[in-house]
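RETRY 2/3 - previous attempt timed out on the joint model. Re-submitting the same 453-residue input unchanged.
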Amino acid sequence: MLDAACCLVRRDLLLAWRRRSDVATALLFFVIVASLFPLGVGAEPNLLRAIAPGVIWVAALLSSMLSLSRLFAADHADGTLEQMLLGASPLGVIAAAKAAAHWIVSGLPLAVIAPLIALQYGLAPELYGVLIATLLLGTPVLSLIGAIGAALTLGLRGGGVLLSLLVLPLYVPVLIMGAGAVDMASAGVDPAGRLLLLGAMLVFAAAFAPWAIAAALRISIE
Amino acid sequence: MSWFWYASPQTFYPLAGRMAPWFAGAALLLAVGGLYVGLFVAPTDAQQGEVYRVIYIHVPAAWMSMFIYVVMAGWAALGLAFNTRLSGMMASALAPTGALFTFIALWTGSLWGRPTWGTYWVWDARLTSELILLFLYLGFIALQAAIYDPRRADRAGALLAIVGAVNIPIIHYSVVWWNTLHQGASVSVTRAPTMAAQMLTGMLLMALAFWMYTIAVTLVRVRCIIREREG
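RETRY 2/3 succeeded.
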């Protein structure tokens, strides 16, 4: 069972590596969205410092969502997904593996590059650790919830826009806790509570989302 | 007689047709009574003046907006568990009314907020949660509208409604915590500790009227859906 999951993660990562430009595009999108805000709201350092956690988190949300519609599309188009549904390993494990691969490709790079954006926004260096921690805890939740939406909208006309309508309201708690933890830390309050809540969301999503993804895939494929 | 007799669209269709006018009539009577009590009998609020009377629409609409989502998710879960056609139809028939009540609650809330708080919109926890609830309803409706096959639309919508229902408490509490962090207690709903009996009567009458309206409209809408699908 774990073999199948590892195999699937390795395969998805290899596919992503062979088409590196897709990964780079999502990352570039993150950087560009974050760079647009100072142009829109003005380059006042205090203002930028205040909005930095929120901007970085919203940009991460959008960037992670951007690659969601491709999560199952290619496997659906060439019939691999049907074989996965028919295969011996439980669909929930496959769903979890797909979400994990999506996170490694689209969530993990965001956590790595976020300090660069934080630097541009003049965020205090001691907050970088909290920012990275929130992204590491929060972006897997985005991948797991997003995969439910991606499975539900599989093969639908205008699926990309619909996907954002379905998924973004469900992202709200992660956004609030993620940006809130950094805000708290910058106000000098211990952000442990928010981080623990983010961790709780991750555990909850990791436990239940794979079932929902599997059910959604069955609904979409049959 | 078995209750499952009416679980089939063919037998439910005439039953819904017979029941809908009664519920519509009850809704009309209760609304007239509730509005009379609310607008003419109930006293003026000591702090807010006449503007408080918007609660006779606002509070029942807000109750219904949340309650309908739960009922919708309940029908959706039933449909997924027992694979009945009617459950999915009921869920899709409820969604527009739920979205409507959510919108009414937001709209009347902002009309009340302008004279009372001095602004149409504040990022208050309850307002924000209600707004996100509206997005959830619209997502459900949009997903069902995008799928041609009605069986797949029902089941996909059902899954989304259940995921949404699980998430609503999480969303609500995170919004409450976000609110306390960002805003402090700058805005609070001041309400007299005890509500005058006539006010409560008017509000409960309106809540019952909205219930009856919801049932009547859902029955009519489910008849339309049955006609569309079963021909």
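Chain A touches chain B at residues 148, 152-153, 156-159, 162, 165-166, 168-170, 172-173, 176-177, 180, 183-184, 197, 201, 208, 212, 215-216, 219-220, 222 (CB under 8 Å). Closing ticket.
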